[in-house]
Amino acid sequence: MEYGAALALQKQFERERKDGLIPDQLLLVEHPHVITLGRNGHIEHLLAGEAVLGRAGIGFFPTDRGGDITYHGPGQLVGYPIMDLRDWKRDVGAYVRGVEQVLIDSLAEFGIAAGRVPKLTGVWVGDRKIAAIGVHISRWVTSHGFALNVHTDLSYFQYIVPCGLTKPVTSMAQLGATVDLPTVSRIVAAHFGRVFDCEMLMEEMPAALSTR
User: Which of 3, 18, 153, 154 could form a disulfide with 34 if both were Cys (CB 3.0 to 4.6 A apart)?
Assistant: First the structure.
């Protein structure tokens, strides 16, 4: 799904969740090449100009999420939970730790021992970042979320300082886990339901929506 389409869908879900029209949602997608900048991000962490990004086929979007700059692309599982935290815990820190736990437990299913780094957001394997997290919360309803490198081409991170940190990134494939995104999606959804104590009901996106 194109990043702009996913952003519009998030905003729609966010409005509907605030109005009590829908239950909590977890949108799981794969994006074409795109770089996004968080609301507190530093544009100097973008290491390439518009012409270079254009030749590489990489889009660019400023966003209202937390965090700095990051890359999304093929082979990466991106998750956007649209949740009303009043129905779970009114605690932003606990929510972020919960998302981290979902990913840590999911990676363990593939034999990858991931964890946290003190004072840093995201999920790490040693000193290498395997998943980034950046969220937005309005009236206790969440949007944006996480990006897990499954079999991502890590060379695309050369265009940024990922999350504003001069630390290396890694992927499940680089760590020896050969797995496809649908399989990882099912595992992540299952652990999301367990961590956030909710029943997960799967629904495929219409093809016309996912490709626009």
Answer: 3
